[in-house]
């Protein structure tokens, strides 16, 4: 009978004061490397370097309703890569999600740069969110006094990805274009798609849309090099407009000029066309390119990492390290540095 399970053990749940709770949290972080050296929150209106208080209110609508958007920017050698491009997409996503910003664009930008400087971290990434904000647990955000802006610095010693991976075609339904084209926090389909691949011994998956065209990976774009040496990426009309993918298309013109590539463009790509490619790769901020050598247990091309894939990876990596203009924003770690 219910209630008669002898294996159930009564638990005495402690009630902590704020001082006691802070001590418990500090104990959890004791002796651990801090992977998040700084966080900004508009909820308390500033930056904290203490991981024990890097938190979001439980009644924030981003937490319990998924009403929020986010974006990221890579940090390399003390420079933020493509910050402005990502920030522009971030605000486009917010507009689609009907979330207003508590600050003008340039204030958001300044906050992100100041947070990165305060962290002293020079390699990793920053991630930032706009939320409908805290207020209640209802469906509508009408009871939320104001939207919220959160951001965090992530310390990560990443490097170029030069080893090839295996992928599968996802059976998890793809998001409809209205949601796929905005970078919102509703990533459950993406998570399930990634888990499905891992369960089959693959790195990640490929989504195919309802018309039979290649869409994207779970959190990355995908690109192909045809046997005619054409660089092809799926059109961005039904999927997320990848900042790194668009930068790749621009940089690829250098290989076209050298005669190594015939062309670089977006198109509707069928599964048959894609699987007949000479080379295949994921494209995303943190990679920036990840070679793909096997798809659904079938080799791509000769099953080896291709020379053109590596050449494109080198172009993006060099752009991250020494790109022109506002591709790279110098973080003013020291007093007197300029933004």
TrEMBL record:
<comment type="similarity">
    <text>Belongs to the class-IV pyridoxal-phosphate-dependent aminotransferase family.</text>
</comment>
<dbReference type="GO" id="GO:0008652">
    <property type="term" value="P:amino acid biosynthetic process"/>
</dbReference>
<dbReference type="GO" id="GO:0046656">
    <property type="term" value="P:folic acid biosynthetic process"/>
</dbReference>
<dbReference type="InterPro" id="IPR017824">
    <property type="entry name" value="Aminodeoxychorismate_lyase_IV"/>
</dbReference>
<keyword id="KW-0663">Pyridoxal phosphate</keyword>
<dbReference type="GO" id="GO:0008696">
    <property type="term" value="F:4-amino-4-deoxychorismate lyase activity"/>
</dbReference>
<dbReference type="InterPro" id="IPR043132">
    <property type="entry name" value="BCAT-like_C"/>
</dbReference>
<dbReference type="InterPro" id="IPR043131">
    <property type="entry name" value="BCAT-like_N"/>
</dbReference>
<keyword id="KW-0289">Folate biosynthesis</keyword>
<comment type="subunit">
    <text>Homodimer.</text>
</comment>
<keyword id="KW-0456">Lyase</keyword>
<dbReference type="InterPro" id="IPR036038">
    <property type="entry name" value="Aminotransferase-like"/>
</dbReference>
<dbReference type="GO" id="GO:0030170">
    <property type="term" value="F:pyridoxal phosphate binding"/>
</dbReference>
<dbReference type="InterPro" id="IPR050571">
    <property type="entry name" value="Class-IV_PLP-Dep_Aminotrnsfr"/>
</dbReference>
<dbReference type="Pfam" id="PF01063">
    <property type="entry name" value="Aminotran_4"/>
</dbReference>
<dbReference type="InterPro" id="IPR001544">
    <property type="entry name" value="Aminotrans_IV"/>
</dbReference>
<protein>
    <recommendedName>
        <fullName>aminodeoxychorismate lyase</fullName>
        <ecNumber>4.1.3.38</ecNumber>
    </recommendedName>
</protein>
<comment type="pathway">
    <text>Cofactor biosynthesis; tetrahydrofolate biosynthesis; 4-aminobenzoate from chorismate: step 2/2.</text>
</comment>
